[in-house]
Amino acid sequence: MTAKTVLQTHHLVFYQALLDQDWSSLAELYADDYSLVRSNGSALSKEEVLTDLQSGDLVFRSIKLTNVLVRLIGSVALLTGDSQTIAERGGVEFVSHFRLVAVYVEDEGRIRLLHFQSTDIPAAHNAWLG
């Protein structure tokens, strides 16, 4: 596992599967004990995340990642960055800007997403940054 392969996996597998609604690719990417902690503090298991996505209520339109850093520690990679996402939930479009931590692990030669956590970046902070 290299920083390059982690970045490729994050963009070409994770983000692309969200945009394409390719739930089988996500199910393969997520580790069996995958967890998601949303910016509101709610925590979901792999099964809960996939059920939510498969309901069709949440549709991703655009995902832009900036300020990316990948740190490798043995067979673990920590990817951090800022995300600007446009999505719809229940037909209502929303734009979110958050910092994220994605934890990837190497599992039998495959890169798997073990954990994803986001923290909202307040609009006032965005305005201050220009």
Automatic annotation (TrEMBL):
<protein>
    <recommendedName>
        <fullName>DUF4440 domain-containing protein</fullName>
    </recommendedName>
</protein>
<dbReference type="Pfam" id="PF14534">
    <property type="entry name" value="DUF4440"/>
</dbReference>
<feature type="domain" description="DUF4440">
    <location>
        <begin position="14"/>
        <end position="112"/>
    </location>
</feature>
<dbReference type="InterPro" id="IPR032710">
    <property type="entry name" value="NTF2-like_dom_sf"/>
</dbReference>
<dbReference type="InterPro" id="IPR027843">
    <property type="entry name" value="DUF4440"/>
</dbReference>
